[in-house]
Amino acid sequence: MNLARIALTVLAAVFTAAGVLAQELDCKVEVNTDQLSDTREEIFTELQQTVSDYMNHTRFTDTKFAVNERIGCRLFLTVTGYNDGVVSGELQVQSVRPVFNSSYNSTLLNIKDEHIAFPFRPADRLTFSETTVESNLTALLDFYAYLILALDFDSFSPRGGQPYVERMASIVQQAQASGSSGWRMFDDNRNRAAIAEALSAAAPAALRDMSYEYHRNGLDVMSLSPDKGRDAITSSLATLSKVNEMAPFSVALTMFHDSKLDELINVYSRGAESERKRAYEILENIYPAENARLSAILHPSNPE
């Protein structure tokens, strides 16, 4: 266990005595029904509350979190249809990680799932199970809860999120039997099955090791030594290049793009010219369509 998690455990012990231990997630849930002609507001108000209660009161791990250590995350469900008791739509999932000695939160996850469908009727109750898939809705929520946990733990210790990656893979395997979209491996190279595979397969999973270097040895030390932190981040980008060479179509690269590109542009706003050039060349090679955005690395608006 790394120092960050040791500190967390110590804090948890303190808060246990005070009776204020918390569940892992601090999840904001919003359900948007603007695209529906018949909103049936009471159903979706209940859905929002039910999902919020599930995400914020279910214990997904054995790790004890203090209240102020809960992982900040957000689920934004856009409902596009409600027929015969089945909700369909899109789900945006986001999570953040605090950076040490700062008020800044670094985005770990920013992903849109465009293949959401699950039965829901008023008075439905969600039941958590570690071993079985109780419903398509609990499968969805459990999958994204474990994804949030996996990415967070990976950022604090090398492959620290492995137990949750394994749980994600188990959920995918069980949920495939339902026939619901988003769970089958070859239907979409960016769906839930693809995400679970990307965190497990040798090539794209290397980004999990990069996450530790990027966050723990990079962002977390920038308040004390910006140059040292930036150097660690720049070094970590070499892993990104290797993943691009070995698995250029992996959803892992898309996930990195959606969560980190803006942050990297900001990180290099005060870097040395040689460092900015190196970072730009790596990123532009992987994300050529973002050339205009990435040019801000070469030509920052507020260089030192």
Lay out the secondary structure:
Elements: H1 3-18, E1 21-22, E2 25-32, H2 41-57, E3 65-66, E4 71-83, E5 86-98, E6 105-119, H3 136-156, H4 162-175, H5 192-198, H6 206-216, H7 226-246, H8 251-267, H9 273-286, H10 291-298
Parallel strand pairs: 2-4
Antiparallel strand pairs: 1-3, 4-5, 5-6
Helix pairs in contact: 3-4, 3-6, 4-5, 6-7, 7-9, 8-10, 9-10
Please sum up the structure shown.
The chain has helices at 3-18, 41-57, 136-156, 162-175, 192-198, 206-216, 226-246, 251-267, 273-286, 291-298; strands at 21-22, 25-32, 65-66, 71-83, 86-98, 105-119. With 304 residues, it is of the alpha+beta class. A 4-stranded mixed sheet has the order 2-4-5-6. The protein has a two-stranded antiparallel sheet with strand order 1-3.
Features:
four-stranded mixed beta sheet, 304 residues, 17% strand, disordered N terminus, 6 strands, alpha+beta, two-stranded antiparallel sheet, globular
Structural class computed from helices and strand pairing = alpha+beta
Strand content: 15-25%
Number of helices, where a helix is a run of at least 4 consecutive DSSP H or I residues: 10
Q: Poorly predicted ranges (pLDDT <50, ≥5 residues)?
A: 1-19
Give average pLDDT, whole number: 90
* DSSP summary, beta strand count: 6
The helix fraction, in percent, is 40-55%
Largest sheet: 4 strands, mixed
Radius of gyration, in angstroms, nearest whole number: 20 Å
Strand order of the largest sheet: 2-4-5-6
How would you describe the oligomerization state of the chains in this entry?
single chain
Using the alpha-carbon principal axes, give the shape.
Answer: globular
**What is the CA–CA distance across the termini?**
38 Å
The helix-strand sequence is: HEEHEEEEHHHHHHHH
